[in-house]
Each structure stands twice: as C-alpha cells, then as structure tokens.
Amino acid sequence: MSADSAIADVLLPLALDGAYSYRIPAGMGLGLGDFVAVPLGPRQMIGVVWALKDQAMTNKALRDVIGRFDVPPLSDTHRKFIDWLSAYYLEPAGNVLRMVLRAPGAFAGPREQVAYRITDSAPKRMTPQRARVLEVAREGFAMRAVDLAEAAGVGTSVIKALVKDGALQAVALPALRRFAEPVLNAGGYILSADQQAAAAALRAAVVARGHKVMLLDGVTGSGKTEVYFEAMAAALAGGAQVLLLLPEIALTQPFLARVENRFGCEAAQWHSDVRTRERDRVWRGVADGTARIVVGARSALFLPWKKLGLIVVDEEHESAYKQDEGVPYHARDMAVLYGAIGKFPVVLSSATPSLESLVNVDRGRYGVVKLKDRHGRPELPEISLIDMRSVKMEPGQWISEPLFAAVQATLASDDQALLFLNRRGYAPLTLCRACGHRLECPNCAASLVEHRFRKQLMCHHCGHLEPMPQACPKCQTEGKMVPVGPGVERLAEEAAARFPGARIGVLSSDLSRGTLLKDALADVENGHYNLVIGTQLVAKGHHFPHLTLVGVVDADLALESSDPRGGERTWALMAQVAGRSGRGEKPGRALVQTYLPEHPLMQALRKGERDAYLDQEKLIRESAGLPPYGRLAAIIISGEDAPSTERFARGLSNIVPMAEGVTVLGPAQAPIALVRGRHRWRFLVKAKREVNIQGFLKQWLEGVKPKGSLALQVDVDPYNFL
Ligand code: ADP
Ligand code: ZN
Q1: Closest-lying ligand 1 atom to the alpha carbon of residue 258
Q2: Which atom of ligand 1 is nearest to the CA of 226?
Q3: Residue 195 alpha carbon, nearest atom of ligand 1
C-alpha cells in the first residue's frame, strides 16, 4: 500500500469535506498520516495524507505532491479522531485539521530557522510600518520574519527591506529545546488512606490499558489533584504521553509549578498565551513523543499526539470546555471520544460534576471515585438564606442589613469577607431619566455596561467601547443619565461608604489574566485586602485561608436564564463561591441573598444536599427530554440584513424532514437578536436519545446554501442558547 502507491488523497486545512488527490512523484514513498506540501491553485499548502491509492478515480491530470515534511506522521488514532469529530459536529474535516496545524513554524526546515534582531544602525528611510517592526524588535527577542511581521501587523517585505537597510540582522535560531523525561516520584505527599484508595482505582484503569472513564468527585481541597497525579504517573511509567486539560483560566503558574514539582520536569504548556516559537516546540515534542506531559487548554486535544495514553479533564463541569466559535466542540466529550478511539482511560475531575457525567455513572458507563475532605470539613460551609422580600433596602444599596452586620462582625474579628456578584462593571444598564432612552450597543441588541474605573461604556458581546455621554443621545438633556442595577464596581462603592476603613479589593476579569490579577489574588491570599468584591473569577479554586464569610449578593441572577443547565450551573457556582470560606483554621459560612428562598436550589443549598438537588434536576431533564436524556442541536442563522435573514430562517422551516422522535422548535429570533451587526435567528432541534440527530440534520440541510452575508451554523450539543 504505502511505498509504491501512485496517488495520495490529502486533507487540507480548509472548509472542505473530502481530501484532494495528488500524484506521488516516483521515489517519494508516502505513508498514511504524512504531512506534505501540495499545490492548490497558485498557493502551496500543508496537508495530511488521508488515503493512498494505486490509481486515480478521475481522468483529470493530477498535480504532484511537492514534498514531505520531516515530521512524524499523524497517527491512525488521531486521523480517526478527526473524522469522527467531523461527523459528530457536521463540520468539514478540513476545519478540524486546521486546529491540528496551529504551529506553522513546526514545519520550517533547517534553512528557514533564521531570526532577525535589531541592530544599532537606523534605516535610511522610516515609515510607520518600519517603525512598528523596529518597536517590536526592540523588545529584544530574535524573531522569525513571519512572526515579526505578524506581531507588527505588516508584510514580510517590510522585514526584508529593513534587513537590506541594515536595521535588522539575521541570526540562526537555536534548535528547539528537548523536553526532559519525567521523574515518576520526584515530589508529592504521603497520601491519605482515602486518596490512596482513589489513586489505586485510577491506576488500575490505567494499567488495564483499555478505554474507561473515571469520574473523580470530591470537594475543592480534598486532594483530587494529588490523586490524578498518581494516574498520570502510572501512564507515564507505561511509556505513554499524558494530557492534563484545564479550563484556560485555571492554567496558572502556581498550578504548573505543582505539576513540575511532582514530576521533576518541565510540563509542555498549550494555551492562547504561549509564544509562537514555544508552540512550535510543544507541537514537535508532542508529535515525536518527547513531550510526555502536556498541560493545556481545550485545543491541546488537537496536538499531533504520538502515543497518548491518558487524558485528565480537571473541572470537567466547566462550560469553558465548550468552544462556540469556529468548530463548536466540547473538549470534555471529545476527550472521552479520543480515549474510546485510542483505547485508553480518561479521568474527569470535579468538585461539582456535570449532570451528564453523573448520569453516565448512574448508567454504569463511567466509574466513580469519591473523595471526602481531608480535614473532615463538611462538603459545604453553613449556608443561610436572606429573604430579600422581607428586608428593607435603601435605593442604590445592595447589601441587606443581615449581610451588612455579618460583614462588619467578620472585619471586626480580623477575618476576611467576600461579596460575590457575577456582574462586571459599574451598572448593567444606563437610562436617561428625562426620556427613558437606554444606552445600547450600536452593533448588538444589548445594553452598554458602564465601566467606571475605565471611564467607558462597554458592550460585553462585541467589545465596543465609547465614552459616557454628558447628555442623552436621544433627547439631549444633560445630567440625567442614571445607572440602573449593580455591577461589582458599584457594589465596591457601596462597600467603601458603609465599611469605612475596610481594605477593599475588586476582582473581575477586567484585571485580565496578566500580572494584575496575579497580584490581586496574592493580596487576597496574604490578607492585604480584608473585603473582597468579585465576580466568578474568585470562585475558581483559589485558596484564601483567612476568608470566613461569603456573601452572595444576587443568587437569582443565574437562575433567571432559560438555559436548561441553569440550575446545575447555579449550583456549581454557589457551591464554589460558598466553598471559598472556611478553607483555613476557622470554619466559614455563607449568606445568600435571594428573592426565591423557596426555590428547590436555595433549599438544597441551605441544607447542603447536592445529590438530592441534582436527583431532582435529573427528573426535570428526563421528563423534558433534555440532555443527557435526549439530544439537542441548535441552528443559528445570521445575516447583515434583517428581512432576508428572517426569510432564510423561515424558508428552512418549510423543508424540515419528517422524522420519528425529533421536534424542531423555531425559527425564533435569538434572545440576543443582533450581535456585531448580524441579525440572528435560531432553531432548536430536540431528539430522543436513540435518534441519529446528525443524520436528521444532514438530511435537512443537504443542499442548503446561505448566500451573501447569510450564514448558518450548526451547534450539536449546544451550551449556549443566546
Ligand atoms: P483538589 O484538587 O481536590 O482541590 P488538591 O489536590 O489541590 O485538592 O489539594 C488541596 C491542598 O492540599 C493542596 O495544597 C495540596 O498540596 C494539599 N494536599 C493534598 N493532598 C495532600 C496530602 N496527602 N498531604 C498533605 N497535603 C496534601
Ligand atoms: Zn456590541
């Protein structure tokens, strides 16, 4: 089959379903999975050999494969993974392949390993473009021409011209540094009896070398990380590569240091902040098998794994594992799929497992290992509800009297308190008191959110920024624009007024993930702040030993959504936030402000009864035929022109095929009817679990071709209903 095949079908990283056929020049000897350069029109592209044939299926003259890259071939498992994922999400295989090829530098040959560095001599002529390049180059790193050009936002010709002028100088790039071998027992603790039992169960699954999914269920701090490290050690001992997936935001330096400490070697990192050259290095290391441990965000699944033998998905319930743009895939589900194809175990770890995973445990499809708190603390701290219907609130205030008193007492005893509100900015809405006009984003059907620290209005959907107007843009009245409702910034203002002397720190994603956030978190941990005001950013597994009180300012926010997973998510969020308190010596407690104290979720929180609440959620989902008891797919239609978008959506509903066990809801205008200038309509397809929903969608959408600005997106297993 291999060495003497005449024709290679090459999958290209384009929105194409099939592979293109090319002639293999005599003596090239290609194998399946080889990375090759092929011509496409006037361009040259990198693709992967997907099939080999002795004869062309067509009489057309085929073009020749240009060359084979000196890169290990993409494994059978990985190619199968791409094909399955493409079939599952109805996404062209080429689009999936594009996610594998995200390190173009990894393909550069030895001759192209040249970088450019700034010199002392100024160019003869200066242009704004040249100035930008020099500004980037002045940061000191030698960069390849393509990377330098990209960073400066110019073409490579500008780089060439600067080299000719002597302002840039070529230097040879050092070879990519090899990843060191892990040391299986470099560090770590003596595990508790519970941890040992859990680790033994995971290790057994690894040693059995078959596909098995294990759910590791235990509160934050119960020692799950140490336990799955043992499973990783077992897989590494067997010679496999391991992937530890984390939600991007949890990929912090202290966590990486922990991995490196445990395994005595550098872990390869893969996430959006990794620099180009390092991406190349990780990509090559994963492809040739020398990178044994990768810690990465969801896209690390697509790295060209040579011999992957274990995936750990930490915080498996996190919705951040679902990608909404591009290929809409769920990394946890695809990790499980990869394990099934590659016949190796997958560990899902969480303090608040998803309902999907719990139901898979019920069905006997997943194994489960539970971990109790190592310090004998209860699963949740004591949680009390504050019935907001029965407390009097001053206008413009959000902290009720009982919460106020609790915070004051906490600060007085030198402990830390956290006020949680899951809303960035100052106010979610700004109105004109004269005419009632509300400030909206020009590109989206959404209110602009005032960010007072930045002195700007911001759209949380498209990022649009504008200054706060003095006068109403509609009626021109001055000084009548008023904020409505609270965001964390406004809550901080109230807190500053009512708790004079408190050392207040505000934590939200506006701090971004850089050093600012790191400093802020450190200042919470070391007690520099004693009153922390934060969004869900603070809920994520941080360890604040001095925190003894958590106040949830508006617990009803998440429940209001029409998302079928709203209840489950609110539970996870509340449990995580409440769980921030009492992590040190002293016990903690949480006060939850709600207008719905009778809601089953609030009652379950008060009693600390997770399983009882989730059992009830299961019943609700089951009777409604929602996942994981039924299947969902969303179809999102968008376009620049409102009437033609609507017409296109309505036209689609006329051609819905008849199918047993399938209900098509819609088309309906999307809850956010306009995003980035695009009008949006949605269908929701609900199907029984045994229905092949992909088959139905294919039949329906076969031959449907959106024209002009119209676009149609299929989202199988949607997590976002806006
Ligand atoms: P989880 O992943 O469940 O949140 P971790 O594994 O992060 O829990 O453990 C919480 C803390 O306890 C960490 O600081 C960890 O280093 C420490 N820890 C875990 N297991 C042990 C152990 N057996 N002995 C001592 N400390 C431990
Ligand atoms: Zn917008």
Answers
A1: 16
A2: 6
A3: 23
Residues constituting the chain: 722
**Which residue, judged by its Cα, is nearest atom 6 of ligand 1?**
223
Query: Which of 192, 314, 374 for mutating ligand 1's site (highest number of atoms within 8 Å of CB)?
Result: 374
Alpha carbons within 13 A on the beta-carbon side of 383: 29
- The Å distance, Cα 253 to ligand 2 centre, comes to 33
Peptide bond into 657 cis (omega under 30): no
In a domain, 84, yes or no: yes
Distance 348 CA to ligand 2 centre (A): 36
480 and 492 fall within a common domain: no
Same domain, 510 and 476: no
- pLDDT score of 88: 97
- Which residues, judged by CB distance below 6 Å to any ligand atom, belong to the binding site of ligand 1? 189-192, 195, 218, 220-226
Ligand nearest to the CA of 189: 1
Output the CA 581–ligand 2 centroid distance in Å: 36
Q: Which residues make Cβ contacts (< 8 Å) with residue 369, sequence separation at least 6?
A: 197, 198, 201, 202, 214, 215, 216, 217, 227
Nearest CA owner, ligand 1 atom 9: 223
Task: Specify the residue with its C-alpha closest to ligand 1, atom 14.
Answer: 221
- In this structure, the answer to whether residues 412 and 537 fall within a common structural domain is yes
Does residue 459 share a domain with residue 605? no
In a domain, 187, yes or no: no
Tell me: do 601 and 655 sit in the same domain: no
Q: Block means of pLDDT (10 residues each) for the chain, length 722 residues?
A: 76 91 93 96 94 80 93 97 97 96 81 82 89 87 82 88 90 84 88 95 95 94 94 97 92 88 95 88 96 97 98 95 94 98 98 96 97 82 95 93 97 95 93 94 93 89 91 93 93 96 87 67 87 86 85 87 85 89 86 94 92 93 94 97 97 95 95 95 96 97 94 95 89
Q: What is the CATH number of the domain that holds 506?
A: 3.40.50.300
**pLDDT, position 688:** 97
The CATH number for 144's domain is 1.10.10.10
Q: Is 1 exposed, middle or buried (0-12, 13-18, 19+ CB in 10 A)?
A: exposed
The predicted pLDDT at position 146 comes to 80
pLDDT at 541: 62
Closest residue CA from atom 15 of ligand 1? 223
This prediction has a pTM of: 0.90
Domain limits for position 562 = 382-423+488-618
Ligand nearest to the CA of 220: 1
> For residue 108, is it within any domain?
no
Say how many Å lie between the CA of residue 301 and the centre of ligand 2: 31
Indicate the Cα dihedral angle 283, 284, 289, 295, nearest 10°.
Answer: -30
Residue with tokens 């020049």: 25
Amino acid type, 50? W
Q: Which of 40, 66, 101 is the last residue of a domain?
A: 101
Same domain? 278 vs 393? no
Say if residue 457 is in the same domain as residue 567.
Answer: no
Structure tokens at 58: 């067509």
Q: Which ligand is nearest to the CA of 672?
A: 2
Helix axes of 156-164 and 145-152: crossing angle, nearest 10 degrees: 110
Residue 190 CA, closest ligand 1 atom number: 23
